[in-house]
Amino acid sequence: MKADVLLGLQWGDEGKGKIVDVITPKYEVVARFQGGPNAGHTLHFDGKKFVLNTIPSGIFHENCLNVIGNGVVIDPVILKREIENLEKQGVPVSERLQISRRAHLIQPLHPVLDAALEKAKGDEKIGSTLKGIGPAYQDKTGRHGIRIGDITFPDFIERYHQARQRHLQMLNQLGFTDFDLEQLESNWLAAIDFLRQYPLIDSENLIHDAFSQGKSVLAEGAQGTLLDLEFGTYPFVTSSNTITAGACTGLGIAPSQIGEVMGIFKAYCTRVGGGPFPTELDNELGERLRKLGHEFGATTGRARRTGWLDIPALKYAIRLNGATQLIMTKADVLSGFGKIQVCTHYQVNGILTQDMPYDIKEAVPVYQEFDGWTEDLTSISDYHQLPVKLKAYIEFIEQHLKVPITVVSVGPDRKQTLFRNAH
Ligand code: GDP
Ligand code: IMO
Ligand code: MG
Q1: Annotated catalytic, 13?
Q2: How far is the CA of 18 from the centre of ligand 1 (A)?
């Protein structure tokens, strides 16, 4: 068996949580492989809404084991809150969730360091979610990190105190004093104690054993390809590898054991935080997209920037991920837009290209215009019932991207998902 991967092709928030939940019945294991509580994955079903930050989006399905892989960074306080919220609503999380002992911990001063570093950047700030992701991964790669498996060691507290000392020195250098360490630390230690009841496992072995037993595995990405540390719009990126390769390192899966790669994108584009965005609509149209698409962050509530679909960026993302299938979400949001633009090429230094330039700020988008459609899509249950103009839009995108669009999402609910088998 191989692991399928579902991940974002844009700047995050493409609807990964919704689609993972929809396809989980096909899988026996769903695993997160990178990122941490900077993610906010929203699911709607049976009139209820859930937002998951650290827990994989397969958690609502009875026969699915959910794994937090080694590549994830865990904030114990946030994870505890997530678990308690779900348990309160009757989801038996403890029966369905296992955590890699190799996953690194976000420590109490990591979010504080995030805030201090952002403040120091001034106008150049990244617009981080301030969950401590960057500082936690920095400690990991700097080989100072603390892994969740370390909580079982007798010298765990000593290790933590050493790390805290280093963090306090850094904050001192940055002149940042706006935090209450005692409060942060007591919450953190209480949450660590709470998490002791969860099995800490070697997720790499669990996944390989699952393969040997013929079980199906889905790796769930967080953030999106254009936020990838290596290939995103650096430095306006996150601190992990959000691409398919991240599923290999973040779960211990060999590249040859990757199966289908499902790349998900919105019918338009959004970005939250700073950084270049060639097709951004910094005008009334953008405001309309934001309103109709409810484009406000699931984790931070921040308004998302909005813009037209960007084909060169999607092509780049497809290439980096080896996407074998595409999923398009939020097609319903475009209903009623008289004309829809799609960026088909960039003009870079006067040359027309579909390649991603080193400095994306230099890319001037070249658009093709489409007639929009007016029909409400949210109660359509069959792909063939979609308006002809939307189908033309989908087929045009597919022709440029040369990868089949197999799923079209027309609303936030599980049921508002159209599978397309016209290939
Ligand atoms: P994720 O981070 O990729 O899981 O995406 P988010 O949950 O942060 O953001 C996607 C938002 O769009 C959520 O509020 C979803 O409920 C919603 N959503 C997902 N698919 C669709 C869709 O096809 N149409 C509409 N209107 N909303 C959608
Ligand atoms: P999901 O999984 C959208 C963005 C932040 C910021 C940059 C760095 O819900 O798609 P970080 O907190 O990682 O240091 O922030 O990345 N960002 C996201 N944007 N969706 C996300 O996750 C994001 N996670 C981080 O806004 O610009
Ligand atoms: Mg999100």
Answers
A1: yes
A2: 7
Ligand 1, CB within 6 Å, residue ranges:
8, 12-18, 40-42, 44, 294, 298, 329-330, 332-333, 409-412
Tokens of 210: 């699952």
pLDDT values of the chain reduced to their tens digit, one per residue, 423 residues: 999 999 999 999 999 999 999 999 999 999 999 999 999 999 999 999 999 999 999 999 999 999 999 999 999 999 999 999 999 999 999 999 999 999 999 999 999 999 999 999 999 999 999 999 999 999 999 999 999 999 999 999 999 999 999 999 999 999 999 899 999 999 999 999 999 999 899 999 999 999 999 999 999 999 999 999 999 999 999 999 999 999 999 999 999 999 999 999 999 999 999 999 999 999 999 999 999 999 998 878 899 999 999 999 999 999 999 999 999 999 999 999 999 999 999 999 999 999 999 999 999 999 999 999 999 999 999 999 999 999 999 999 999 999 999 999 999 999 999 999 744
CA nearest neighbour of 329 among 218, 412, 210: 412
For residue 273, the ligand closest to its alpha carbon is 2
Residue 150 catalytic? no
Strand 309-310 vs strand 217-220: parallel, antiparallel, or unpaired? unpaired
Q: From the candidates 4, 21, 41, 345, which is the catalytic residue?
A: 41
DSSP for residue 296: B
Give Cα separations from 412 to 44, 171, 181, 331 (angstroms): 6, 41, 39, 11
Q: Counting ligands in written order, which one lies closest to the CA of residue 295?
A: 1
Q: Report how far ligand 2's centroid is from the alpha carbon of 321 (Å).
A: 19
